[in-house]
Amino acid sequence: MQKIQKEHLYKVLVIGDLGVGKTSIIKRYVHQNFSPNYRATIGVDFALKVLSWDAETVRLQLWDIAGQERFGNMTRVYYREAMGAFVVFDVTRPSTFEAVTKWKEDLDSKLSLSNGKGVAAVLLANKCDQGRDVLTNNGIKMDQFCQENGFVGWFETSAKENINIDEAASCLVKHIIASENDMLQAEVPDTVSPQLNSPRNASCSACFRS
User: Which of 43, 112, 114, 153 could bond 207 through an S-S bridge, CB–CB 3.0 to 4.6 Å?
Assistant: First the structure.
């Protein structure tokens, strides 16, 4: 008798300021292509990535949230039931890194898992093909920033050159699955349903890279 393959569906947010390359990262990851001419996302867009993970199927529902949405009231709706997030900044524009903490605070204030912990979040230093900035040259400082702000890790990425996109996604999926397993083991009712307005919690640093 053939064993039924277990499937997981995880909602993943992709957030960050306007023009940091969120749509390009998703297109590269899902469709393996790149265009320099994507239009700015209005509201939210969606994509689906199917992975084979330890003999199981993982479906990632990627929510591409417009960069200007942090200033609106819709992020609470968009964040609902997400299990993980990529927070993206553009290494050539320091202001987009300064906005990272605001995006992370918005995420933590509006979304947490049913056990009260924050969802797994990976920081992406995007457009590294255009030159490394002073900040990402100092891996120790980046690791410290991630630990202080509750990121599980960070990666220099380039959608154009396909640098570290798959690696960053694998890191996030690993932490999402670990979070889900923690909730299941705790045997809390509705363990896999994230809730809004629960306390935030720092994440582990298993995926940190320098």
Answer: 153
